[in-house]
Amino acid sequence: xxxxxxxxxxxxxxxxxxxxxxxxxxxxxxxxxxxxxxxxxxxxxxxxxxxxxxxxxxxxxxxxxxxx
Length: 68
Known about the structure:
Blueprint: H1 3-8, E1 13-15, H2 20-27, H3 35-40, E2 47-49, H4 54-66
Parallel strand pairs: 1-2
């Protein structure tokens, strides 16, 4: 996700399923900066819902990245 764009657009709430490390593990590449770091250093801080439906989304991400 593009956390910077979320901050600039002043979204009030962000919800995600897999965190930075989990997605990097599945995708096989590292995302340079996680959203927590972006939100912590930004003047506008959205409310963040973490790990929502993480087990269900893990299956979808693994299927996408491992069965291309």
